[in-house]
Design goal:
5 strands; 283 residues; alpha+beta
């Protein structure tokens, strides 16, 4: 049973797990240029204690659409037996916890739900998550994952880059089943020379996108070639039709003239026969 009620341990498991960011929030300063400026906390004194902490029987998931990170997903937590969540504890006042909630957005769709997740040294441990799961399984942006990875690497330097990447990408298996998880011994082939901003999942998915683009280009080239062949065939057919039309017209004209000649011959013969008849009658 917790004995100290004036203060609590706030469990930060995403961006606030980085101490410098948490300090900027308390003092009302921006951590980077992309962030919106908020008013300082009512109590601007820094935390009394902080330490890395692993929360048992909980897991992370991605949901909602974060306007600050390309309308992509953010991290939330929920109860899950056997699960674990990496983060950092800050011993702050209850009033400061309320200001943290306002800073993160205290609405039901964001961090409006306060979880009582345990105790540490006679202080309650509080965590924030969403009440309503909206846009479930929305993948996070690369920039967001990079910032969270930095925060967790600061709290747990012994875990290493690939272990934290595997932890953050575990919920993405339900979102992108075509992306394969990172395997042991793939450090050189998957992430060589790419820097810390790419996770193994992102590298594989990027390769797949390149292959798809190449295939699309090939299909477009083949379609263009077929169109050219069709155009050439149609032009040849039109030429043949034009050439074939001219002799037909000539033949028609020759037939008309021949018919006229025959008719004139017939009339001449007819006139001759009439003259011969008249002569015979006179005799």
């Amino acid at each position: 049973m917790a004995k100290n009620y004036a203060y609590v341990y706030f469990f930060a498991y995403e961006l606030a797990a980085k101490k410098r960011r948490m300090k900027c929030w308390i003092e009302g300063r921006r951590y980077d240029i992309s962030e919106v400026t908020f008013a300082p906390f009512r109590d601007t004194s820094l935390w009394e204690d902080t330490l890395p902490y692993t929360l048992e029987n909980y897991k992370i998931f991605y949901a909602q659409k974060n306007q600050n990170y390309s309308k992509k997903g953010s991290i939330f937590i929920e109860y899950s037996p056997g699960g674990k969540v990496y983060g950092r504890l800050y011993r702050i006042s209850r009033e400061q916890l309320e200001d943290v909630q306002v800073r993160l957005d205290a609405s039901a769709f964001w961090y409006g739900k306060v979880l009582d997740v345990g105790e540490y040294e006679d202080y309650q441990i509080k965590a924030l998550t969403c009440k309503i799961k909206y846009f479930m399984n929305t993948p996070p942006s690369k920039k967001y994952l990079k910032e969270v990875r930095k925060a967790l690497s600061e709290a747990f330097p012994s875990l290493g880059y690939f272990e934290i990447s595997r932890y953050l990408n575990e919920p993405l298996k339900n979102i992108t089943p075509d992306v394969k998880p990172h395997q042991e011994g793939e450090e050189d082939t998957v992430t060589k020379g790419l820097g810390v901003e790419f996770s193994p999942y992102e590298v594989i998915s990027k390769k797949k996108k390149k292959e798809e683009k190449k295939a699309e280009k090939k299909v477009k080239k083949n379609n263009k070639g077929n169109e050219k062949n069709n155009d050439s065939l149609t032009s040849e057919n039109t030429k043949d039709n034009v050439e074939s039309d001219t002799p037909i017209q000539e033949t028609k004209e020759s037939e008309v003239t021949s018919n006229n000649n025959t008719q004139s011959e017939k009339t001449e013969d007819g006139s001759k026969s009439l003259d011969t008849k008249k002569e015979e009658e006179k005799k």
